[in-house]
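Deadline looming. Please check this record:
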Amino acid sequence: MASGPATRSDRRGERTVREAETAREENRLPPGQYVPRGRPVIHYGRVPAFRPETWDFRVQGATASGAEHRFGWAEFSALERATLVADFHCVTKFSIMGNDWRGVPAAVILAAAPPAPDVRHVMIWGEYGYSANVRLSDFTGSLLAMELDDKPISAERGFPVRAVVPHLYAWKSVKWVRAVEYMVEDRRGFWEDRGYHNIADPWREQRYSYQEEPGEGPL
């Protein structure tokens, strides 16, 4: 049965729902952030080609066994998956709210390829040598995402696999992930070595390295 035209009260109700949703999003915005139209895409360098026959994911550095662990595309695709709904905060000040990610939880990687007991930090490596360092406690709650909104992630957003570290600025969520490196001592990644904050907590506006307090960066 066809419905009739929207009444004034219907439109008021729709407006009230939109306003309530906007208010909820504003309450989730860290200081200095705004919600843009659409989903902007920012990345460094060109988009790499994906070749499943040669693609692999490696766990290296201070592993519990002392050996490097390697997962081919078929092996990685078969790992347990989970869904993570999270906001996404770019250091350039836009935030994309309520993203529905699905992929391999970092906890699955940590169980399959455990770190040595004294590991406290993780370097996430992407294509072309791009990297971002995070604390092990930050990595534990992250996701190696393969889908966004029930579809494979697009190439420019990181296909086939990107990291999602939802509580930190988005440069920590490395696109085109190829490896994680367990580290006993902290070491700065690509943007951290170029003046960005070592921790990157958006709620504390930790954007730049000059803001770092003692103990927040490598010795």
